[in-house]
Amino acid sequence: MPAIRIPADLLPSDGRFGSGPSKVRPEALAALASVGTTWMGTSHRQAPVKQVVASVRRGLADLLRLPDGYEVVLGNGGATVFWDVALFGLISRRSQHLSFGEFSSKFASAVTDAPHLEAPQVITSPLGTHPQVRPDPDVDLYALTQNETSTGVAATPRRPDGVSPETGLVAVDATSAAGAVLFDPLEVDVYYFSPQKALASDGGLWLAACSPAALARVEQVAASGRWTPPTLDLGAAIDNSRKDQTLNTPALATLFLLDEQLRWLNGNGGLDWAADRCRRSSTILYSWAATSDYARPFVADPAQRSTVVGTIDLDPTVDATTVCAVLRANGVVDTDSYRKLGRNQVRVGMYPAVDPDDVEALTACIDHIASALSG
Fold it and tell me: Where does the chain show beta strands of DSSP type E?
C-alpha cells in the first residue's frame, strides 16, 4: 500500500462511513457509558428495561408515522432471522420476491428452501437497477426491499395494483432505509429492519411495524396448525412486544442506543428531517462523482440511487482497494464495496448520524489519494 498521508484539514471530523454496522453517535455512546453500572447486566424483565422497550416502540411509531392499528413488534436476531420468522408466520402459501442484490435475493432463497411453502415467484433485474412487482392472485405475500445495501439501489414501496391487504400482504425489508428514507406506511403491511444502520445502534434485534392485516395473517397461519420453532414464532413475538419485552434476553446496549437515536431523530424533526439530511449527503456524493474525471455513480438512473448507501465506480486506473486501504490508514473507514459485487468501487454509508460535511470531506480525501496515485 502506498504511504499516502492525507492532510489533516481534508479529513472528516468523523471517519466512519460503514453501510452497516454504521456510525453510532458519540453522544449516544457517552450516554450508554454514563449508565453502564445501572443498565448493563440488569434484568430485561424488570421495569427499567421494559420502559426503554416501550419508549422504543413509541419512538418508532412516531418516527415512521404509523397509522392507528399498526403495532411495533420486536424480537431477537436481525433482519436475517426475520426472514425465517416470515416464512413460518406470514406466508400462507406462496410469495413473490423482487431480487436485485445480495440481501433481497437471500430472502427469496430462504423461502425457496422451505418445504411447507410453494416455490416463490422471483423477479430479478440487473445489478444497479430494481424490478417491478407483478400482481398475481396466486401470491399472498409480496416481498420488497426499500434499499438494497449491497448495490445502493433504492425502491419506493407500493402496494400492487388491485391487491388488498387481506389477500396479499406487502412485506418490506427496510434494514438500511428505516429512519432515513420516506415511505407511505399505508402501502406496507410489514415494515421490518434491524437497528445497526440508519438507527445507529448495534445488531441483535429485528423490529417490524405490522398492519392490522399482518396481525390477522399471523393469527390465521397459527390457526392452520403449522409447526413453528418457538424462537421463530411471530405470534409469541407479538405477545411479548405488547408486554414491552422479547421472548429471550435482548442485547441491552442495542436497546439503549436505539432509544437514544430515536429520541435524537424525533427531537430534530423526525423522518422528514432525517430524510433531508441524507439527501444532502447523497447529493454531495453523486454530484462529485458526476463531475469527476475518474468516478461515476454505479446506479445509472438517478431516481433509483439510494440516499443512504452510495456506490461509486472508479476508473480502472484508480484502484478502489488501494483507495480504501489508504483511507483506513488515515482513519477513514469502511468505504469498501460489497465483496460479492466484485467492482472497482467505493461504497459510502450516509445515514442520519453521518454529517453531510463529512461526506464532502471524504470526496476531497479520495481526490487527494487519486492525485497521489497518478503522480
Answer: 71-76, 95-99, 121-124, 141-145, 147-148, 153-154, 169-173, 190-193, 205-210, 295-297, 309-314, 345-349
- Identify the burial level of 153 via C-beta atoms within 10 angstroms of its C-beta, where 0-12 means exposed, 13-18 middle and 19 or more buried: buried
Cell numbers found for residue 84: 425465517
- In sequence order, the 6+-apart residues with CB closer than 8 A to the CB of 8 are none
Q: 280 pairs with which residues across the strands? A: none
Residue 100 pLDDT > 90: yes
- In the chain the domains, ranked by start, together with CATH numbers, are 26-267 (3.40.640.10), 270-374 (3.90.1150.10)
Q: Give residues with Cβ within 8 angstroms of 227, minimum separation 6.
A: none
Cell numbers at residue 370, please?
Answer: 487519486
Write the pLDDT tens digit of every residue in 116-132.
999 999 999 999 999 99
Q: How many CB atoms lie within 10 A of CB 136?
A: 14
Sheet holding 309-314, edge to edge: 295-297, 309-314, 345-349
Contacts of 367 (CB under 8 A, 6+ apart): 292
pLDDT (mean) for 72-92: 97
> What pLDDT score does 1 carry?
77
- Pair type for strands 169-173 and 153-154: unpaired
